Structures are given as structure tokens and as C-alpha cells.
Amino acid sequence: MNIDNFTPKQIEEAKEVIQKKEFIIPLPKTSNEIPPVLYVFRHGQSEDNSNFIFSGWRDSKLTELGRNQAEILSEKLKDEHFDLAITSKLVRAKETLDIVLKHHRNAKVEIDDRIIERSYGDLQGSSKIELYLKDPVTEEKYRRDYDFPANNGESLKMVEKRVKSFLNSLLPRMKAEKINVVVSCHSNSMRALRKILENLTVEEMCKLENPLGQDFASYEIK
């Protein structure tokens, strides 16, 4: 199957559906400046984001727009204090964090793949548009269902499990060491983080959209 077999109108309609912002909950920001505070953001636009590709665990660099988004985010965070910065091993998350940390050169950096993007298994590298045009119901299930993994991939439920493990080790450390931490996330790992930290329902998490770069959430850790 090739999207060239479809009309430009059909392709544009597919893009609109895939990009539709189902459910936006404003990113929370604590007014507390005393550690421990946790800062969370999603990476800027990647080449795969721009081309409607299932990225998952494959590497995809930031686009020029993605770098500009990260610069906006960097300006918003420049007056905060970070002791520790955590990212996945994927280049889009690392590039975004590097831009943010130009104002925070003393922050220690760690890589933790419990916050890596959801694995899309056999779908990685394939076109979301092509799948939508072929089977829109299945395409939406891959993006929106809680327990529907791609072949050899992960469900959102599986992502939540590893993100919960990440928080269960990080939050006590933050309280013990009295440190502020910033985390460079991906779409689905940030959904899971927000579900846990904001007590969202499964339904809310599955529909939740977080912005590419540009903005952040912050949480007072008690």
C-alpha cells in the first residue's frame, strides 16, 4: 500500500485526524521554589513527528521547528534551579534537554530508559497516515487504547508500569537529597507521569495531549 494511491484531500484529512488534540489539561505549575520540585516536559518536534511516522524507540532528530520549540522552553526555564536532569537515550529527548541546560550548566545529567517513548514494535518507522487510510479504527487504537500493544511493542499500560517504577525510585531520592529535577520526556511517558502525579483516570491519560517542547509542568514533591 502507498499513500500515493489516495487523493491529496484524503491524505490531508488523515493528517487532521491524527493531529487532532483530543484532550488538553493545562500543564500544572507549582509556585513553590523550595526543593524538591520536579519539572517535566516533552521533547520538541522530531523529523518523525513532522512526517507522521511511528517513532517509538528509533532515533529521530529534532527539526528546525523542534529546536525553536526547545529554545522557547529554555527561556521559560532559565530562572529555575535544577540539580539533576534526566533523559532517555533517544536523540530527540537529549537534544531538547541540551538546549534547556544551556542555562543550567551545573546540573548533573543521567539517562534512564524507564522514561523512553512507548515501543511501537513492528510499526516503528511506518507511516501513521498509511495505516489510517488502510484501517482507521486500528490506527486510533494504537494511539489511544490503554492495553493494545503493536506486535513486538508496548501498550500504554506497559509504559505506565515502568514510569511508575521510575517515580518510585526518583521521588524518595529527591526528598532525601532535597534536589530539584528536570525530566525530558516523550509523548507516552509524559502521559503516564501526569496520570500518576495528577491522579488522572485511564481514560483521561489515553486522550491526553502534551505540547511538543515550548512548555513544562512542575510539581512540588511532598
TrEMBL record:
Its EC number is 5.4.2.11. The active site is at residues 43, 117. The record marks 186 as: Transition state stabilizer. The keyword Isomerase applies. It comes from the Bacteria. Substrate binds at residues 42-49, 92, 117-120, 128, 143-144. GO terms for molecular function: phosphoglycerate mutase activity. The keyword Transcription regulation does not apply. Keywords: Glycolysis, Isomerase. One of its GO terms (biological process) is glycolytic process. Belongs to the phosphoglycerate mutase family. BPG-dependent PGAM subfamily. This is phosphoglycerate mutase (2,3-diphosphoglycerate-dependent). It comes from candidate division WWE3 bacterium RIFCSPLOWO2_01_FULL_41_18.
